[in-house]
C-alpha cells in the first residue's frame, strides 16, 4: 500500500497553511477555494501549494 501525496492549502491573506488535501496529478491549475481561516477569523481564498 502506497501513501497518498498531500498538498497544503494556504490562506491568501495571512499565508498560513491550514488545510491538507490529496494531490491530484490530473489537475493542471492550482486549486483555489474559499475556506475558513482560524487565524483571520473569516472565510478567505485558499490556494494549493506544492
Automatic annotation (TrEMBL):
Instruction: Give GO terms for biological process.
Output: translation
**MF terms (GO), sorted A to Z:** structural constituent of ribosome
Q: Name one Pfam family in it.
A: Ribosomal_L33
> Among its keywords, does the record have Metal-binding?
no
Record keywords, A-Z? Ribonucleoprotein, Ribosomal protein
* Gene3D superfamilies in the record: Ribosomal protein L33
Quote the InterPro entries the UniProt record gives: Ribosomal_bL33, Ribosomal_bL33_sf, Ribosomal_zn-bd
Gene Ontology cellular component terms for the protein in this record: cytoplasm; ribonucleoprotein complex; ribosome
Q: Which family does it belong to?
A: Belongs to the bacterial ribosomal protein bL33 family.
This chain's protein is named Large ribosomal subunit protein bL33
Annotated source species: Paucilactobacillus wasatchensis
Lineage of source species: Bacteria, Bacillati, Bacillota, Bacilli, Lactobacillales
Amino acid at each position: 500500500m502506497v501513501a497518498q501525496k498531500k498538498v497544503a492549502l494556504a490562506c491568501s491573506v495571512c499565508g498560513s497553511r491550514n488545510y491538507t488535501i490529496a494531490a491530484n496529478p490530473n489537475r493542471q491549475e492550482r486549486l483555489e477555494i474559499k475556506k475558513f481561516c482560524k487565524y483571520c477569523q473569516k472565510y478567505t481564498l485558499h490556494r494549493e501549494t506544492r
